[in-house]
Amino acid sequence: MSSQQPTFQHALSRLIEIPSVSSTLPDLDMSNLPVINELAAWLEAMGFQCEIQPLPGAPHKANLIATLGSGPGGLVLAGHTDTVPYNDSLWKSSPFALEERDGRFYGLGVCDMKGFFALVMEAVRGYLGTPLTAPLIILATADEESSMNGARALVELGRPKARYAVVGEPTGMRPIHMHKGIMMERIQILGQSGHSSNPALGRNAMETVHKVITDLMQFRAELAERYQNPGFTIPTPTLNLGCIHGGDNPNRICGQCQLDFDIRMLPGMDSEQLRQQIRQRLLPIAEADQVEISLEAITPAIEAFAGPENSDLVAACEKLTGHQAEVAAFATEAPFFSRLGMDTVVLGPGDIDQAHQPDEYLSQERIKPMIAILQSLIRQYCLS
Ligand SMILES: [Zn+2]
What we know:
single chain, 4-stranded antiparallel β-sheet, binds zinc ion
């Protein structure tokens, strides 16, 4: 069956059946290759040229670039093949068996977002006999939910290149043209422990972290003054002090302390620049307290996303959906596709409220309208 073109429901059901959890916890992390292989077999049967690209250093994870037609320009329809982990006991039905009830399809990844590929294939089916004037590329990535390493590998590779990209994340069928970025960082302070009866016997890392926190809060205020974007509910960048670990005993000078924080960047802010700025600010504190202070990323940053001003694709999606483009409160792979030079919009059939939840579902009433939107985009960017 897998080498033939599946029906919509068969494709959806197979995509849900094949587990593809990605997680930063190694015990929960799975390969996405079975999903990629199945998709590639279907798309090849539809006439696409399929390239399966294992991620550097992770041969059990891969991206798929499936191309129909050739030449410059064209449209990418993109999604991730992985899902978040699940709590089996909280589901009414199996997360890995597509279940149809109350006008909904239930299953892990049906909304976020393996289901999108079934819709894309259904949309494309109508045009298989028609020669395309610009390529149509279906892009399936790995590890969006854990590290975004699939999208990072594509940026390294400089592919795919197209004029436009639509990322089918759950946006309730409203186009998203901006979201904040996120960086998660760790500061480590190495002082010197000693007997608490004489402060001169050590260098107290906890006293240094006090200064570091004061400085980060000052930095946050400066960032909020420098960067504002009224498009966001929280119009400034944020910096959250998230967790702190240090010391062991009240009668011991604290020798080590660690502080984790995040920054949610607005479009126009760059994670590496921010990291350098913070490092500069930490230098005088380290010198004054005679301690070592380091700052490293806990996970690689996801930059903020903003499509181009006067985006042709945003205008097209606004017209097709009847909704003005909005901003999202969650991060996606869109900034990576933007960096590849594509005019990018996030637009998909699911609702973010159902993502990462037990009993994840996709309303059946969304399916036909979303397929119609995808077909309009294909006609507009690959057939005219
Ligand atoms: Zn997603």
